[in-house]
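Possible regression after last week's pipeline update?

I re-ran a chain I had predicted before the update to compare outputs. Posting the input and the new output here so someone can diff against the archived version. Not blocking, just want to make sure nothing changed silently.
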Amino acid sequence: MPLMDTNLDAFITRWRAASGTERANYQLFLTELGELLGLPRPDPASDDTRDNTYVFERRVDIRNADGSSNRGFIDLYRRGSFVLEAKQTGRDLDSDGWDRAMLRAHAQADQYARALPASEGRPPFIVVVDVGRSIELYAEFTRSGSTYVPFPDPAHHRIRLDDLRDEAIRERLRLLWLDPLKLDPSREAARVTRAIADQLARLAKSLEAAGHAPQRVAHFLMRALFTMFAEDVGLLPRIDGKGAFTSLLEDLSDKPAAFAPALEALWHAMNHGGFDPRLMERIRRFNGGLFSEPDVIPLTRDQIDLLLQAARADWRHVEPAIFGTLLERALDTHERHKLGAHYTPRAYVERLVLPTLIEPLRRDWQTVQVAALALRAQDRPDKALEEVRRFHHQLCHTRVLDPACGSGNFLYVALEHMKRLEGEVLNLLADLGETQGLLDMAGVTVDPHQFLGLEINPRAAAIAEMVLWIGYLQWHHRIHKSLADLPDPILRDFHNIEHRDALIEYDGVEYVTDEAGRPLTRWDGHSKKTSPVTGEEIPDETARVPIERYIEPRKATWPEADFIVGNPPFIGASTMRRALGDGYVEAVRATWPEVPESADFVMHWWHIAADTVRAGQARQFGFITTNSIKQTFNRRVVEAHLSPSPQPSPTRGEGAKPLALAYAIPDHPWVDAADGAAVRIAMTVGFLPSPLAGEGPGERGVNEGTLLTVTSERETGEDAHAVTLARREGLLHA
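New output (post-update):
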């Protein structure tokens, strides 16, 4: 037996038999664990905490809501890596007392992480150790004050002592100590996703050069890429050890004439389900509209090879949070040159999604956890199960709306975090005695139907819907290692992404004409050319569209939702007419006179969402706006909602209570998804303060806002800058 195995066996045997308290044993346990993994030992502690970058018993000062403070000690702290809280419960894993002890330890570690000086930044991990029994990992890679979630997911975040025999687990712990950001799955996923998008762009360009219409090319490639994903997650059968689609492409690479009929047959089978005679296999039914018209573009041998290169990538690791943006650029003739440009990083998206909807849901969940464990301790397991089932049902019916959803990155991030939360709920249900069979029979789960979008660009709307399905299936595969348990059809046409305007509805559009009846035209608002003088991009005035007049414009209605989040268009008041056309701007301004004409375009979304929350029709909303929101012409919109309304609103009626800000970052770096440009933005989250503030964990008052201020930022060689944020709590003003 190799020496490593001998040492490992001795470590496991020694600590499995350990008893006593964590005070007596935790430092020795962690020291020996470090030696086993080849990690450096903690340093001696200094009186000056600024020097204590890797120590036991790191001192922190915890500030209380009343202004007082008390001192705490982190069991093991490694700056930039983790806060570790140790217990030695002496209880069986997953027992009643063990669950409560670990829940308290997690809460304490989270409190310590929040109490660290802003100059040190928040570590990406908190670790909860039951000495000699288990190690639990929780991650928060944005490091901005959001919730730490089970890592890598709720099914695999708990490392038992025997799990240390797995080299992959030991390597995970080494990286936790030595290079924790390498554990951020979005980093590698971003690299893979960029490479795949580049391949698809080359193929799209080749097909368009052959004379195929861009819209037809886009739909063809969307079906093709979902087929690639389907084979990599096991939704298509394997042929001689290869995915069915890859195998088909290899067979057809020297038979291009057979490509179109062969692929059409496969897509027809995927749409309806049934036996595929060429593959000699049963194909599951996908449906959902994606394969309802299996139009296949005939490909040359070289084009089949390009498709085959993309199919050989591992589609399980595509990052849905950025894939939509890159795919939209790859499929758009005008946007393809921007494919190498920056995209909105996932960490930036999470910085808004988490406080807008995930943190309120997690506060609800924390209340339910405490209640359920108390009921179990009172020997009332049925009531405990009922409490958790009720929350799960609520979670699976929570709706999230992005009223300017683009290619769906905000909705996907919301879906993933709600799936993470659902995993924790299902774990507790199992601990309380709910069998997997009953969970499966219930058939209720967080899925794409809860994530609603409005999008004016038809291609982006279609991509958003596909991104949500890829993300949902990817997450299910990650947790269950299979999709075999999913019922047919795999895809459902929920109509949750609507292709329409978010601000106005109208009876029709007519062209404005000159005296001779000829349509007047304007710049199309997006086509650019390179200036021969400055070399910069300037509007291409030869790209013209007719000037339109909107007939009977009226306020658009938004789908009902519990949370509203998104990144509406960055268009200043002074450039709205040039970008959108006189007819549209006049229709919007006539329809929404409550929004000053001097306000930026995005403030229309802010106003509608604020009205919706104040009317009690949604819990919270959060938007990205330009950082000019704090300037007078935009601040007026915010101030109007933070004050009692003298006039009734059609949405909220009379006597509506004023809104409050739950969260704000007034100036933050951002990457505009439209063109990859670096811009400065603000983030704001609005909510309706509770009159019962302070009487329960879910009841928040007007003085409980969080203000984050960027104190430093540096380039990292990636799309997201490393941002240090200072945090303040209290009443937030416009």
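Follow-up from reviewer: compared with the archived run. The chain has 19 helices and 28 strands. Marking as no regression found.
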